[in-house]
Amino acid sequence: MTRRGAILCAMVMGACLLMGDAADGQLRAVPKGRIPAVAEPAKPQAEQPAPSRYDRLLVKYLAGIDEAARLNEQQRIGMYRWHLERWRRTEQELFQDESAALDKLRALAKAQGGKLFRSEGGGEELRYLISTSAASARVFTALCRENLVDGEELLPFLRGGGPILDRAWIPLLQNLAGAARKRTDAWRYGVEALYRAGLAREECRPLLTEIAERDSDVKALHALLFDSDPETGRPVPVISLSNLMLAKKLSAKEFSPEVRVVCASYAAALRDYDLAQSVCKDLLSQRYKGFDEPKAPPPAEDRPLFRARNTALYLMFYQLKNERMFKLIYYRSLELQKEQNDHPGKAPGTWGGFSASVTGQAEVNIAQSLVDEAAKFQGESQ
C-alpha cells in the first residue's frame, strides 16, 4: 500500500471509531455476548370502570348535604313561625269579644251533655285552645271554674306549650297539676307541663327522670334533654353532667327504641357522633316481628321500632352526614328490590322480610325518599 493509501485508510478507521463511541454513549457499553433488549411498544391503558350509581350519589350527597341541611332547617323554622302566625290570627278571629267566645263554648258544653271535649276528635272547642293566647287562658279558666270542662283534659295540651305558653295559663296549670292524682296520666302531663314552662324544675326533674326510665316516656325524656327556642322552635340541648349520664344510660339496648333515638339525637347535638351512629346502626339492624308473619297485621312491637328508625334515618341523613350513614340509607332503600331479585317468580311478601311488613315497606320508602333527595343535590357528579 502506498503512503497516500495508508493515510486514507487511517482516516476512514478514525471516523468509524468516532461513530462507535457515539453509539456506545447511547447504549451504555453493552457487555460482550449480550444483545440489547428492544423496547416493546406501550400497551394502551385499560379504561377505568364507570362510577356506580352509589358512587355518583355519594359524591353528590357529600358535596350538597351541608347546604341541604341548612335549607331543611330554614323550612322547619318557617313552618313553626307559620303556626305561630296562624294562632295569632285565630286568636283575633275567635276572641275579639271574650264574652261572646265564652258563651259559645258554654253552648257547646251543653250540647255535649254538660262538658267540653266529649265529642269524638275534640270538637270545635279545640280551635279555642291557643297556648300563646292570654284570652284563651282566661276563657278556659272560667270554664273550669264553672265545671264545664274537665281540667285533666287540658293538661296534655298545656304540656306542649313549653316556653311559648302565655303566662296567663300558669295559675290554671299549677292548679290542675296540683290536683291530679299521683301516678296517673294527668299527673305525668302536669309534671311535664310545669317543667317545660320553666316552673318547679328542681322538684320536677327527678319525677321526669323516673317517668322516662320506668315508662320509656319519650316526651318526658325529651323535656329533660332539650329546651325549645321560642323564636325558632329549634330543640336546644341542655348540657349538664346529669343529662350526659342519663343519655348514655338510656341509649343502651335494654331501653325502648324511641327512648334510644332521643338519646342519639342528644348525642348528635353535642357532637358525640360515635354514640349517635352506634345507636342508629343498632336500631336499623333489628328485625321487625312482622317479617316472620307475612299475612298478619303489624305487631304492636313494630310500631315504636318503626318510629325510632324513621327518626334515625333523618338523623343520619341531615345531622350525622357521612359516608357510612349514607351507605346504610342507600342500601336500605334497595331492600324491596333485593328481596324480589332473591325470589324470582314469587309474589312480593310471600317470603317474609321487608315486603311482607307494612312497617318494613314504609321504612324502605322513607330511605328511598332520602336517596331521591340526595340525587337532586348540586354536587360534583351529574
List descriptors.
disordered N terminus; 16 helices; two-stranded antiparallel ribbon; 382 residues; elongated; mainly alpha; 2 strands
What would you note in describing this structure?
- This protein is an all-alpha fold and 382 residues long.
- The protein is built from 16 helices and two strands.
- It has helices spanning 3-27, 53-94, 98-111, 134-145, 151-159, 170-179, 185-196, 201-215, 218-225, 241-250, 257-269, 273-285, 302-320, 323-333, 335-342, 358-375, and strands at 226-228, 235-237.
- It has a two-stranded antiparallel ribbon with strand order 1-2.
- The longest helix has 42 residues, at 53-94.
- The protein is elongated and about 75 Å long.
- The model is unreliable at 1-39 (pLDDT under 50).
Instruction: For the largest sheet, list the strands in their spatial order.
Output: 1-2
Uncertain stretches: 1-39
Number of strands: 2
State the end-to-end distance.
84 Å
Strand content: under 5%
Q: Mean pLDDT, as a whole number? A: 86
Question: What general outline do the C-alpha atoms trace?
Answer: elongated
- The class by helix and strand makeup works out as mainly alpha
Radius of gyration: 37 Å
Query: What is the N-to-C succession of helices and strands?
Result: HHHHHHHHHEEHHHHHHH
Helical coverage, percent range: 55-70%
Count of DSSP helices?
A: 16
- Which sheet architecture does the biggest sheet show? 2 strands, antiparallel
Question: What layout of secondary structure does this protein have?
Answer:
Elements: H1 3-27, H2 53-94, H3 98-111, H4 134-145, H5 151-159, H6 170-179, H7 185-196, H8 201-215, H9 218-225, E1 226-228, E2 235-237, H10 241-250, H11 257-269, H12 273-285, H13 302-320, H14 323-333, H15 335-342, H16 358-375
Antiparallel strand pairs: 1-2
Helix pairs in contact: 2-14, 3-4, 5-7, 6-7, 7-8, 8-9, 9-11, 10-11, 11-12, 11-13, 12-13, 13-16, 14-16
